[in-house]
Design a protein that fits this description.
Blueprint: H1 3-35, E1 54-64, E2 77-79, E3 81-91, E4 96-110, E5 122-140, E6 153-172, E7 177-179, E8 193-207, E9 212-223, E10 240-252, H2 265-274, H3 276-300, E11 371-372, H4 385-397, E12 403-407, H5 415-435, E13 443-447, H6 460-466, E14 468-473
Helix pairs in contact: 4-5
Length: 474
């Protein structure tokens, strides 16, 4: 076989087909651009179901027992032989798919350049490549195009795993023909040698139509053995071969769907963003959001600032700073009708006249008089000591006895000041009793300020009577 002639013929045929296909693809592109309308209603995130994702291909080309990476070979010269195959591919995304491949053909080589035309007792070989099945991952490295709406040329890289069956025949140095067909395998009873291999390849696709594309490719096959040429050498090197091909691939599926191979995600996204229906939906969504925001604003509106929204506020005019319950009304723990914020005795039901405190007399414990104080003073008078000593003795004698000291004030000064002054007067009495030996936890103190007068605050005599501490037995 004249290798040079065959090589030139194959190269010329491929270049001619390539030129024709590129020109056809360019005409198709110009025709498509003249109408410039979206080819489908596919959505960016609409899933694979909106595309055609299966394709069937047929191809033919030349096989050779070498590849472009070079390396050691068992024969000095190699020839190219016819090969043909088929593919079935499933595209899982814009950039990735899985391809099942089938290949048949022959591999040939000789030792013409060796001394005497013989090397390793071999003159030549021819291997019948009966079958080859492989699965390869196919990566589309040109799926995104920033320059054109539609891709018409795709570049691919492939890699995977496969199994081949073949039968080598070789001519020995003594011109004997030896065939492995029918005597292959460990027991020499198999028709073909079965070997695993790793396929690696690259290719280019040209879009001919919505259904058809023309493929050019180059695959390299790395075998897990050293017998594809019928020759095993001492260095135990593994054999390799290659397949350069051209072919047609047909997209399968409904015509209404676009072929996922040629979809440019950028163009698809642009069409979707420019879709007037989408803009209408966005505007409608904006309107709904605005309505919801207004509704929420109304629900959260709190005119009186008490922390309860107007929609739930049963007392919408509460004064600022007043503590309220869950319905927005002022808190009234003792339920006497006087809000806690204005109730001097918030835990005791009282009257409006006494600022929420209960009406009571000056009913000091029997046998004891009120302890009186000077104006604006919480210092005990010496005249109070005898009564306090008597009370101390009685409480110490009765360990179960509990007393309460109620402090009061006249109406001079502010309510806040008088409330504190009344507490100080009650605590002054408690301090005296504790110092005299009474246990502190048997004495409770309360301050009532000016809220419980026993006499009129319009006279000096009345004011003097109101500056007091009363004793109560609990």
């Amino acid at each position: 076989m004249n290798y040079s002639t065959i090589k030139k013929a194959v190269v010329f045929a491929m270049v001619s087909v390539l030129g024709f296909t590129a020109a056809y693809a360019q005409d198709t592109t110009m025709s498509t651009m003249s109408t410039m309308t979206p080819s489908s209603s596919a959505k960016v995130f609409g899933g694979r179901a909106q595309y055609r994702t299966w394709s069937l291909g047929v191809n033919a080309g030349v096989m050779s027992p070498v590849n472009v990476l070079g390396g050691k070979n068992d024969f000095t010269n190699w020839d190219i032989s016819l090969g043909y195959g088929a593919t079935l591919r499933k595209q899982f995304g814009h950039a990735f798919g899985l391809e099942l491949g089938f290949l048949r053909g022959d591999l040939e080589g000789n030792n013409q350049d060796a001394i005497g035309g013989v090397q390793n007792d071999r003159k030549s070989f021819k291997t019948s490549y009966a079958y080859s099945g492989s699965i390869m991952g196919v990566v589309n490295v040109a799926t995104v195009d920033f320059l054109k709406r539609e891709n018409n040329v795709n570049f691919l890289v492939k890699a995977g795993y496969g199994v081949a069956g073949y039968a080598p025949t070789y001519v020995t140095g003594s011109n004997a023909n030896v065939s492995w067909k029918g005597v292959a395998g460990k027991n020499n009873d198999q028709k073909y040698v079965q070997e695993q291999f790793i396929p690696v390849g690259a290719g280019i696709k040209f879009k001919v139509s919505e259904r058809v594309n023309f493929d050019l490719g180059y695959n390299m096959y790395f075998l897990d053995g050293d017998n594809i040429d019928g020759t095993r050498t001492s260095d135990n090197s593994t054999d390799k071969y290659s397949y350069a091909y051209g072919g047609l691939e047909f997209s399968l599926g409904a015509s209404a769907k676009p072929n996922l191979d040629w979809v440019n995600p950028l163009a698809l996204m642009y069409d979707e963003l420019k879709d007037p229906t989408l803009r209408q939906e966005v505007e409608a969504l904006k309107g709904r959001v605005s309505t919801i925001e207004t509704t929420v604003s109304d629900l959260l509106k709190d005119t009186d600032g008490d922390g309860v929204a107007d929609k739930l506020d049963k007392c919408p005019d509460t004064e600022a700073g007043v503590k309220v319950d869950g319905s927005g009304c002022p808190l009234d723990v003792d339920a006497d009708g006087i809000p806690d914020s204005k109730d001097s005795c918030p835990t005791e039901k009282g009257t409006v006249e006494l600022n929420g405190c209960p009406a009571m007399t000056s009913g000091t414990m029997a046998g004891y008089n009120n302890i009186q104080f000077e104006f604006n003073s919480s210092v005990l008078r010496t005249s109070a000591y005898p009564a306090l000593d008597k009370l101390s003795a009685e409480v110490r004698a009765n360990t179960a006895m509990r007393i309460q000291l109620d402090g009061h004030a006249s109406a001079e000064g502010t309510e806040e000041y008088n409330m504190q002054l009344s507490k100080d007067r009650a605590n002054a009495v408690k301090t005296y009793l504790v110092n005299s030996g009474v246990t502190a936890n048997t004495i409770a103190t309360r301050g009532y300020g000016e809220t419980r007068p026993v006499a009129s605050n319009s006279t000096e005599e009345g004011k003097s009577q109101n500056r007091r501490v009363e004793f109560r037995q609990q």
